[in-house]
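Q: What would this chain look like folded?
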Amino acid sequence: MKLSTPHLLGIKDLLPQDIRLILDTAKQFKEVLQRPIKKVPSLRDVTIVNLFFENSTRTRISFELAERRLSADVLNFTTSASSVSKGETMLDTVNNILSMKVDMVVLRHSASGAPHFLAKHISSAIVNAGDGTNEHPTQALLDAYSIEEATGSLQGKKIAIVGDIMHSRVALSNIHLLTKMGAEVTVAGPPTLIPKFLTEAFGVNVTYNLKEALQWCDVANVLRIQLERQNQPLFSSLREYNIAYGISRKLLDSLQKDIIIMHPGPINRGVELDSDVANGHESIILQQVENGVAVRMAVLYLLAGQ
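A: My prediction, written as structure tokens:
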């Protein structure tokens, strides 16, 4: 089977069968990662450039590890050490790199739509590693893989996405994916951090009551407060946010049921999650990190075969 698209620009562009193919392929690669020798020659002689115009630690390392596990040749590019700091455009930067015969570009950029722009101008496969407040497709795929691994299925599962929905590309990609795969989604957070169009555009439920969302859900995917993307204060203080929307051990114990806790990282401990919740038995946060490598291996492998 093949993907229906030559790029991974967003979950919005994927068909349910594309998502299923990626998740099933990731399962095979996770088995590879459990072996003593964790490397396969699947992408030998394929050159991939990691083009990060925005800071990243976990996503960049996860992609690089996935590429090296597949035996690809890897180039890492950061803007602070490049001609971009001298005023070179993204397209010139990419074309210069492609003249070195690069097969695939993993792009993170602060501008929404940057991967889509690039896909119209170059022939190499593009993987979106996060564009502005638009999408972060591989994060949604690894979240879906982790939910399926923990619960057995996505179909019919109740997923609460909690926190800064307004500025989160993770939230948008998760909403696209989960609704396509038959899960129910509720978003929860302060009214100032939840876009007004969500119910109309995506058919998701909206609540401003955290306990109500947690009482309803099987899985809570808790998002980071993105202060760096907020142009004005959207809530009074981090302390007050924690009181109203932070998940504590006391709150979880009051639910009288077990739920799964997820977080795309980095965690603001003591803000959206208390440490004893992030480290607790409900948390699959470290499994998400591990699954991220297998999912990104699957994406790169399938795109390289297009």
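The radius of gyration is 19 Å.
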